[in-house]
């Protein structure tokens, strides 16, 4: 590369990275977003991105600045749906089991009820909104450039990150964490630092959610097409006359089942990028013939490349929550405060009478709604021990612990050849003994917080912690077998509580892990023009909550890919 071109590249990138984008659309009025129905049966683009989720949206927005991009999302838009957009309705979308729901429920073989996103914005349209970066050590271990990572975080934060209100309940939890030794007090920060802090949120001060779909405001409207209700059935490869398969197109179907094909334009820099999520990405690779050959052959799928690591290394961070009834009202809040203990667990809190999702009816909600996110039976709260009717408001909150990592690992297998069907997933919660030890330490930390002076006003004085564990355990939140035997009527031990009340915090990851399925540039090993960029590539969950880092990664890799494209011209 001569000096003139090198200087031109530097100037071009500097203008792009640091100048405002003048020609942009504002959410939700994107001129480039439309339903897939009625679109051409054949089309051509520089980049085809499969999945408009937490990584796919920032990735597409970035690449649209100097290329033509097709972003294919199997769900609809998150806008104009109060069950998604309003903090007070949190949980309503997760407990919606209809085919039109933005959430698709699945149950792992471990008996834990879970959900995957089916909406533009991905998990950021469904989650509890906590925004916090990965630690500097994590960034370094992933091989990311620290400067570009920080720039990418700031790019995301300018659109979707806010400081939470920090009400009395959350403040009491913070003060309780500090009182029991989870120090220092790190105040409000996006950074991942041992101690106690208030993190960010993607809910603004009016309680409106801002998802990764809002990052499409950065997109060049002339360079991007976003198609909704466009389900990709397989990736197409050219194999004749090549030393290895070359991805060159996709087949997707609209909501009426009409098949469409999108192909890459000519050019060695053009690529297909899979950002379909932890379940969707390995599933789609397998449906396209890339995966364990025996499993593909069992489904009568033509093997393009035998890749035994696809679908392996699946992890889900165990989450256990303790319900604490309060004698005084508790403000509506999701995750705001976190104690980063340094002992392998993170302690967080959420509460308020509307917590759990009241839907769009405006009638408020009850504790029943919270459990409906995890249980297929809406009548679970009718147990005598909870003494809560379906109409009784939820006054109190949950203090929860999440096991970092985790170390336990599982796998994913195809159930059918239909991409709309969930694959079979096993996470093997607490298979590794250290995960259980971490959970126990987390529960012990919660006990100390609940018994702290700082938290006293939000707890009934005559309710022991053993009573609270028994109270929480009495309402099944998963499909794992209940405790049995002579000690079943006694309060559970911390180990028993961890095993029997484990749920998900929706931070599952793996299946296309870096170094096994993709290389350090997220290119699928052994295949040209194909990358995977999302949480399926991660072998260890970033920070306390991953969404900030996944959005950052979409932007980060978009910039890197754009640099590669300019350098190859």
Q: Identify the CATH architecture of the largest domain.
A: 3-Layer(bba) Sandwich
**Low-confidence regions:** 1-22, 354-369, 374-393
Report the helical percentage.
10-25%
Q: How large is the share of residues in beta strands?
A: 15-25%
Count of discrete alpha- or pi-helical segments spanning 4 or more residues = 13
Strand order of the largest sheet: 8-9-20-21-22-19-25
Number of strands: 26
CATH topology of the largest domain: FAD/NAD(P)-binding domain
Indicate the CATH class of the largest domain.
Alpha Beta
Radius of gyration: 23 Å
Mean pLDDT: 90
CATH homologous superfamily designation of the largest domain: FAD/NAD(P)-binding domain
Distance between the termini: 10 Å
Could you give a short account of the major beta sheet? 7 strands, mixed
What class would the helix/strand composition place it in? alpha/beta
Number of domains: 2
Task: Describe the fold and architecture.
- With about 575 residues, the protein is an alpha/beta fold.
- It folds into 2 domains: about 40-160 and about 205-315 and about 410-430 and about 510-569, FAD/NAD(P)-binding domain (3-Layer(bba) Sandwich), CATH 3.50.50; about 165-200 and about 320-380 and about 390-405 and about 430-500, Cholesterol Oxidase, domain 2.
- The chain is built from 13 helices and 26 strands.
- The strands form 7 sheets. The chain has a 7-stranded mixed β-sheet, with helices on one face. Strands 1-11-4-3-15-26 form a 6-stranded parallel β-sheet.
- Helix 2 (about 55-65) links the parallel strand 3 (about 45-50) and strand 4 (about 70).
- The chain is globular and about 75 Å long.
- Residues about 1-20, about 355-370 and about 375-395 have low confidence and may be disordered.
- InterPro entries: FAD/NAD-bd_sf (IPR036188), GMC_Oxidoreductase-Related (IPR051871), GMC_OxRdtase (IPR012132), GMC_OxRdtase_N (IPR000172), GMC_OxRtase_C (IPR007867).
- This is Protein HOTHEAD.
- Keywords: Disulfide bond, FAD, Flavoprotein, Signal.
